[in-house]
Amino acid sequence: MEKIYGYKQSDVIGLAEFLKTRRGESLSEMFSRYAIKCGKAKGTVRNLYYALAKMSKEDEDFCNKYLSGNPISVSEIVEFKGEEEEELIKKILSAKSQGKSVRFAINELAEGDGKRALRYQNKYRNAVKNKPDLVRKLIGELESEGEVVHGVLDRPTPEQLISDDQLLRLKTEINNLVERISSKTKKENKFLKERIVFLERENLRLANLLYKDGVKGDALRFFRARRDKDMLN
Q1: Does the CA dihedral 41-2-66-75 come out positive or negative?
Q2: Using CA atoms, how far apart are residues 88 and 106, in angstroms rounded to an integer?
Q3: pLDDT exceeds 50 at position 160
């Protein structure tokens, strides 16, 4: 699958096409509108825009084809250095060990700067998703320092999401439902088996009457002669 700076080429090109519908709205408003259209987070759309901007400056053919030859100008994005990334993630993990939420920790570290908070948030999420070994290493360092971090990489099982009483009640209800379905099915099977036996006997009886001694009789005369109570319902 073709990618542009880590993002699907189709998503970046899709955003380039969507930019052509922009009419006087801010970038933030456009990001929100495209996020709704394609089912992505607004932060992801913003990152797609930065990838598109970078591509527009570095690939003239791409720029001519998808942006009518007009490169996108954005403020320079300062990349994280390796040690800066580790320090940021470790601070967020440390805050989690103290019972703080990731959002709260990021807002603290960003000192109320919305753009910086978004940048920190994207970096943290990317590390948890794509760099689990790094995250495990940092968690190990924190644990060696006496801090305990839970719920970052390990997904809880369904049993861990509910209490023992709730789990027992759920299992009981499921078992009762299975038992009711099983009982109903058994009754229906019994009825069908009895009906089949009855129909087979009736079929044999009628065959004996119609073909007595191997001679074909008058079927119309037979049914005219039968009483209603003897007829098959």
Answers
A1: positive
A2: 9
A3: no
CB 44, CB 35: distance < 8 Å = yes
Express each pLDDT in 74-98 by its tens digit.
655 556 666 888 899 999 999 988 8
Cβ neighbours around 80 below 10 Å, total: 16
Nearest to 170 by CA among 180, 162, 179: 162
Q: Six-digit token pair at 51?
A: 């990838």
Report phi then psi at 221, rounded to 5: -65, -35
- Choose among 83, 10, 20: nearest CA to 51: 10
Token pair 């993630």 is found at: 89
Is 227 strand, coil or helix? coil
Which amino acid makes up residue 28? S
pTM of the model: 0.39
Q: Which structure tokens are listed for 132?
A: 């689990």
The DSSP annotation for 94-116 comes to HHHHTT--HHHHHHHHHTT-HHH
Tokens of residue 41, six digits: 């987070």
Percentage of the residues of the chain whose pLDDT score is greater than 70: 79
